[in-house]
From TrEMBL:
Species, as recorded: Phocaeicola acetigenes
Residues in Glycosyltransferase 2-like domain copies: 2-132
EC number: 2.4.-.-
Protein name: Glycosyltransferase
Gene Ontology molecular function, alphabetical: glycosyltransferase activity
Keyword terms, alphabetized: Glycosyltransferase, Transferase
Lineage: Bacteria, Pseudomonadati, Bacteroidota, Bacteroidia, Bacteroidales
Length: 317
């Protein structure tokens, strides 16, 4: 399932890698999210070169740009396959990816299979090995929540998990960290999960328009929306206490910038105060920020203000 928006320069490599998969029984769903460029013309030209795949290719057009979450949901709603996987339209996959991952589902009776990936830069690549899964589901999901790359495009998911639990991408005014939001829910509901220790996905780092290349206050807000939604989801199911620390760490990471200005101290203190008990153990935050956070939460704001003053003297901001 591939959402498409403004990827004219990259979509050919993506689509060819999909249509040239060694696995034969694939349903391809391409969602045109009202792309303003020639991406769809490129897509249609490439599909025409693969007549054996054409009958399995579905193209859906949004009349207006709705964002990647809505595009994924559009595709999910019409999907009929036994398993679902997403691919970003500026990335590409290895030719055996779907065959390799599906084979694991059959051999090990897995409902979800994850694989490893590489970051593809202009002149080099960096390999990433994702989280292993054990029979201790809670410990494994905690480990996953603290991992830096909680994405959807490297997990093959049994479609029944989506259907039975009414899961979909969160369509909020937030685009960053939406993968975390959905992947955590999917993994929570899955039965057997298997990590395939093989690099099969190529994450394109040459696209300057990617959201991952433009982090700012908006993405910080998006993180908070997605994390708070997961917190509420787990609270409703009575399992929040199992993952409170890891979600607290995530919240602290998302609001750490607020301790760097007196004007945003109140915002820091009010957003999910449950997280404050995990300041010292949070792996995402440096010692200076931890001291400032602890000072604020224990009503010693003068310490935080003094550290801000020292920062100003050193950096001028």
């Amino acid at each position: 399932m591939v959402p498409i928006y403004n990827v004219e320069k990259y979509i050919e490599k993506c689509v060819r890698s999909l249509l040239e998969q060694t696995f034969k029984d694939i349903e391809y769903i391409f969602v045109n999210d009202a792309t303003p460029d020639n991406s769809m013309y490129v897509l249609e030209d490439i599909i025409s070169e693969y007549p054996s795949r054409m009958k399995n290719c579905i193209i859906i057009n949004h009349s207006e740009n709705k964002g990647v979450a809505a595009a994924r949901n559009t595709g999910l709603n019409i999907s009929k396959g036994e398993y679902v996987i997403y691919c970003d339209s500026d990335d590409w996959i290895e030719h055996t990816m779907l065959e390799d991952m599906y084979r694991v589902t059959q051999e090990q009776n897995a409902e979800i299979v994850t694989c490893d990936f590489r970051m593809a830069y202009n002149n080099h690549c960096v390999d990433y090995h994702t989280v292993d899964w054990s029979e201790d589901k809670i410990a494994s999901l905690r480990n996953y929540m603290t991992y830096g790359w909680t994405v959807l495009w490297n997990i093959l998911v049994k479609r029944d998990i989506y259907v039975q639990n009414k899961l979909k991408s969160l369509e909020a005014d937030a685009a960053y960290c939406e993968d975390f939001n959905l992947s955590v829910k999917l993994l929570f509901h899955a039965g057997k999960i298997v990590h395939l220790d093989k690099i099969l996905y190529n994450y394109n780092q040459m696209n300057g328009g990617s959201i991952m290349r433009s982090l700012n206050e908006k993405t910080m807000h998006d993180e908070q929306v997605m994390y708070l939604d997961v917190i509420n989801y787990f609270k409703e199911r009575g399992v929040y206490q199992d993952y409170e620390k890891q979600l607290g760490w995530r919240i602290l990471k998302s609001k750490q910038e607020w301790v760097l200005s007196v004007k945003t101290y109140d915002k820091f203190l009010k957003l999910h105060p449950d997280s404050h008990k995990y300041i010292w153990s949070c792996p995402y935050i440096n010692l200076k920020l931890k001291i400032m956070m602890w000072s604020l939460t224990h009503h010693f704001s003068l310490i935080s203000r003094f550290m801000l003053f020292l920062r100003f003297l050193k950096h001028g901001k």
